[in-house]
Amino acid sequence: MARLTLAEQLAASLVEQIGNGTYRVGERLPSLRECMRLFGHSKNTVINAYEALAAQGLVEARHGQGFFVKQGAPSSNEAEEPLPYERAMDTIWLMRQQFVREPGHSPLGEGFPPVEWLKDMRLDKFTRQIMRTGVTTLFRYGNRLGNASLRQHLVQKLASYAITASPRQIVTTHGANHALDLIIRRFIAPGDSVLVEDPGYYPLFGKLQLQGARMLAVPRLADGPDLEVLEQHLRVHKPKLFFIQSVGHNPTGSDISPGKAHRLVQLAEEHNFILVDDDALADFKPASAIKVSALDQLQRSLYVGSFSKSVSAALRVGFIAGSKEVIDELGDLKMLLHTSTSELCERTVDVILTEGHFLRHVLRLQERLKAATTAGLQMLDEIGAEVFARPEQSLYLWVRFPRVDDARELTRQLLPKGFMIAPGHIFSPEQARVNPWTRLNVAYLNDALLKAVLSE
Predict the structure, then answer these.
(1) What tens digit of pLDDT does each residue of 174-210 get?
(2) Which of 69, 221, 370, 452 is most buried by a 10 A CB count?
(3) Domains of the chain listed by start with CATH number
(4) pTM for the model
């Protein structure tokens, strides 16, 4: 079979997205400039792809406005079963869109705290300090489990969460996403059932699709997973993993209740599955916040941590904590796939953790977050919005606005007014389903113009 051209590949991806409802009849496709930026294609490639869709009768060009979906494409149920990569393409597309910062737009839907909240870390100072000592090790591969000194500091960090571990129970990663990828590669085979929260962390859904896993959605309630639905899945299926976020849940901002956390640990033991506790936002919450991995003490759980949100996404430093046997296996898998993680980045984080500056930085982050959450909740109450959960401090709030049935439509309405939000459908394993909710970053909610626009 002849290899598809770039234009044909792009056209096929768009046909798939039209078919599964990512773009519905009457909706405008990304502009030529947006598509060029997102995919790195030339203008001619994008034009050829759009013209191919027009030739199929799927889209129509409107002078001065762009290309619009004219009719639905055949759904994936009517065609051959797509390959894992093809199933993951929707998530890849969404991630590209989410990572683009439009100049002049308020990033209400962004997943990171403002850069201003992180600048006091002064990474340049720590880098110079590293370059003055032990510079020869920076020219070699690191340990398969990660920098030894950093892992010792991570033992102390876990102890502050009431999780007891040794350095041999920790493997470092290129951030939390790499950690999730290693866990999926180790434990999941095509066709395996996996429990995920709905709404939940949408890049995880793409990873599971790529692996060929069967996702079982467990609704996320304001106090944690819906245990009734979870137990129904457990009675019928034999899932290997349940990916959860105990606190600071992305996207709802909710925290698990102690009762549900204890019950989850019991169910993991009864039904022989592993709890993957993704805690990438740990530094934004008090250390006393309950975590299922602390109740379980890493017996049937894996704890995933990261410094991307609290220090710098550019450093790409995360970690997994678990039993020694599992960590040994994940360390071998990491070595096979990536040889090692970055010694320079890990030593940078190690030096940051060595100084009391990090603790002061985290406390300042939490104070800022608490103030932003309080102000954001007040503004949302004033305009009559429904808030899913009302945490004392959370980077995210899950919100439904009055008279909004589909957050995608609200997204289109706000873009010309300078606001970018994250519509709820992208956080569901069933992304074609209409969703009225949206994720908002509290750091950008204190905006008089936004309040006026949302009050209209």
Answers:
(1) 999 999 999 999 999 999 999 999 999 999 999 999 8
(2) 69
(3) 6-81 (1.10.10.10), 121-356 (3.40.640.10), 360-455 (3.90.1150.10)
(4) 0.80
